[in-house]
Design goal:
Elements lengths: L1 H17 L6 H8 L8 H27 L3 H8 L2 H10 L4 H21 L14 H18 L4 H11 L4 H25 L7 H25 L2 H22 L1 H4 L1
Helix pairs in contact: 1-2, 1-10, 2-3, 2-11, 3-9, 3-10, 4-9, 5-7, 5-9, 6-11, 7-9, 8-9
Length: 253
């Protein structure tokens, strides 16, 4: 029974996160880290990344075609993020470090999301430097590989605050960023000897997030209020962080 509640939760997370170009890795990890499932980080990390890939593979294409996002818009962010995410995925972490790093990153991200963007539709876009985009992508990519979330939830708020792109374009960039980083991080994990995943466990979960992601990415910009989605996402991310800290309290006590 608990497992099918988990599957339903993954569906809802994919639905909400995909509407703004995210994969949902943060909340997947929060659910999977609950003691009732007794999973280790070696299982949690690749599961979350696989779900990210399943969700954003389709939404990336939809956002790119909808907003006609040129290669030059997103390539600078992934040039360094891919190798950095690969290195982060290979990096060995103790459970203490993994959960503390994950929860603290999510708390910071939820605060930034809740604050929102000072960017208004009539404001001018500030063209960021290529070097700045490389460094930003590389840093977030490495962190993403470590904690096994694609990184869009970090990149998107930063781009909004820097006013480097319009909202729809940022969602597309974030979606592509998540996709390539998740693939790189997952590759790094398996090359470093990650545990093989139980197909009976992973297939229903992947099916749920694929369906939820397809629905969310198609309805997101047309049916959902972007401000409400941002606030809801911020709350979900914060709950995810607090859930991880509470459920793993024995680790940090």
């Amino acid at each position: 029974m608990e497992y099918w509640i988990l599957v339903a939760g993954f569906f809802l997370i994919a639905l909400v996160y995909s509407s703004v170009g995210f994969g949902g890795g943060s909340s997947y990890l929060a659910l999977l880290s609950l003691p009732v499932f007794a999973l280790t980080p070696e299982v949690l990390r690749p599961t979350a990344l696989l779900c990210n890939i399943a969700v954003v593979a389709g939404s990336s294409w939809l956002f790119v075609t909808r907003y006609r996002i040129a290669l030059k818009k997103w390539l600078p962010y992934v040039v360094l993020s891919v190798p950095c995410a690969f290195i982060g995925g290979m990096w060995p972490l103790t459970e203490l470090v993994f959960y503390l790093l994950l929860s603290s990153s999510l708390i910071l991200s939820s605060i930034i999301l809740w604050m929102g963007s000072p960017f208004h539709k009539d404001d001018e876009i500030s063209e960021g430097s290529s070097l700045g985009k490389y460094i930003l992508g590389g840093g977030i990519g490495f962190l993403s590989g470590l904690v096994s979330i694609g990184g869009g939830i970090f990149l998107s708020p930063v781009l909004h605050h820097l006013r480097w792109e319009r909202a729809g374009v940022i969602s597309g960039i974030a979606s592509i960023f998540i996709l390539v980083n998740s693939i790189a991080g997952l590759t790094g994990q398996f090359m470093s000897g990650a545990e093989s995943l139980d197909l009976g466990f992973i297939i229903p979960i992947l099916t749920a997030v694929i369906i939820g992601g397809q629905i969310g990415s198609r309805l997101g910009s047309k049916r959902f209020n972007a401000e409400i989605i941002r606030k809801v996402t911020a709350v979900i991310v914060l709950i995810a962080a607090l859930t991880i800290l509470q459920s793993r309290f024995d680790i940090v006590s």
